Amino acid sequence: MDVLLLHRQQPFDFWQSVTGSLEPDETPREAAVREVFEETGLSAPDYAFLDWGLNNRYPIPPKWRHRYAPEVSHNTETVFSLCLPTPLPITLDAAEHHGAEWLPARDAIDRIWSWTNRDAVRLCARIDPRISATFTRHLASTSKN
């Protein structure tokens, strides 16, 4: 399984998966679809897009605090995955990322800065490839409904 990582320089230099924040009145799923498109140019509903039903809550690192209201000290992430038939070309949002790379899951885990990103990749990578292929076909056939 290959994983798309995006290289970010601000507020510090690190690698991550597609991430983002909720807009007012937006569900986590809507935010994930929007962020995938903004950061990669890919339309998530066209592929096997899965909500893992997993949320991670963690303290906001000091380097990110300026992006939140003063009373906000923790962030909650919802884990989604997007399974593509093959690694596809992407269109980067140059304001956020200056590089992208498709890597085997093991290499991606070694490069990712955030523990929540690493755990999400580990979760996706644990799916047996035979099950994953069947699951991907099933999701692809139902995700457009």
From TrEMBL:
Source organism of the structure: Denitromonas halophila
Cited InterPro entries: DHNTPase, Nudix_hydrolase, NUDIX_hydrolase-like_dom_sf, NUDIX_hydrolase_CS, NUDIX_hydrolase_dom
Residues reported to bind substrate: R8, T19, S114
Start and end residues of each Nudix hydrolase domain: 1-125
EC number(s) recorded for this UniProt protein: 3.6.1.67
Cofactor(s) required for function per UniProt: Mg(2+)
Keywords: Hydrolase, Magnesium, Metal-binding
Biological processes annotated in GO: folic acid biosynthetic process
PROSITE patterns: NUDIX, NUDIX_BOX
Gene3D superfamilies (alphabetical): Nucleoside Triphosphate Pyrophosphohydrolase (3.90.79.10)
Family: Belongs to the Nudix hydrolase family.
Pfam families according to UniProt: NUDIX
Organism domain of life: Bacteria
GO molecular function: dATP diphosphatase activity; dihydroneopterin triphosphate pyrophosphohydrolase activity; metal ion binding
Entry binding sites for Mg(2+): E35, E39, E96
Full protein name: Dihydroneopterin triphosphate diphosphatase
